[in-house]
Design brief:
eleven-stranded mixed beta sheet; 26% strand; two-stranded antiparallel ribbon; 251 residues; D-Maltodextrin-Binding Protein, domain 2; alpha/beta
């Protein structure tokens, strides 16, 4: 098993590519309650994702500044605006057009919740004519549904709370979401059920703005080795236990 000390020394050129200002700016998605599960005494984000950013900055030998975003869509849209140096976000093909990603370091199941009395009993049955699926727009699982749903209708809203309200008040046939979130939502929906299985897993990764040059390739290669070492050394599993989050697993 590789340890965190197995990563090679960081060259000045690589450090300059990843932290050109001498401080690593890490984009953090505040809406993912599994990865940002608490707040620091100062009110900043705390959890698995911020701790991964701290570990990366430590390996680079630079200070860290967390750059919080209210949603993954806002984080991804900032990729071309030089607001962050690394972004901790779900890896999706649409986002990969502007962001180069490492392999995933953690994954989260996404599935459906159906209301009391629903005839739907399996994941496959949801994608059918006449089925309306409530989904939060531009989430990783929402982007997956945009690409893969063929027969059902997607009803998208901006936040998870709005999506839940839309599902409940609009009498929709299914609610798409992270399993851990749906477990909390079901308490407000007497008789509702969460379907067995998953329609996808959200692959949480580290990304950098995609520039077509050798430095980008070198930077993403180093971050990939960092992620793989974090998994094999047990760091990710340790962080999940430290923060007590359920529904998040090592990729």
């Amino acid at each position: 098993m590789r340890s965190e000390d197995d990563l090679e020394p960081v060259s000045p050129a690589l450090r300059q590519r990843l932290a050109p200002r001498g401080t690593l700016r890490a984009g953090i998605n505040l809406s993912n309650f599994l990865l940002v599960s608490a707040r620091t005494p100062e009110g900043g984000p705390a959890g698995v994702s911020p701790d991964m950013a701290h570990a990366a900055a430590g390996r680079l030998g630079v200070d860290l500044r967390l750059v919080p975003y209210a949603s993954p869509a806002l984080l991804a849209e900032a990729a071309g605006r030089d607001e962050w140096d690394i972004g901790l976000i779900g890896a999706e093909p649409q986002r990969a057009e502007t962001i180069a990603f490492t392999p995933a370091y953690a994954e989260i199941e996404a599935t459906y919740l159906v209301p009391a009395g629903s005839p739907l009993t399996s994941i496959a049955e949801v994608d059918a004519p006449g089925v309306r699926i409530a989904v939060t727009a531009k989430t990783a699982y929402g982007l997956w549904l945009d690409r893969n749903i063929r027969h059902a209708e997607l009803v998208a809203t901006a936040t998870m709370d709005e999506t839940l309200a839309d599902f409940r008040e609009g009498g929709l046939e299914a609610l798409a979401g992270l399993r851990a979130r749906l477990i909390s939502d079901i308490a407000q929906l007497p008789g509702a059920r969460i379907l067995d299985g998953r329609f996808m897993t959200v692959q949480q990764a580290i990304g950098i703005a995609r520039d077509r040059d050798a430095q980008t390739d070198e930077a993403i290669a180093w971050l990939t080795r960092f992620v793989e070492t974090a998994k094999t050394s047990g760091l990710i599993a340790t962080l999940i236990r430290k923060h007590g989050v359920e529904g998040l697993s090592v990729a």
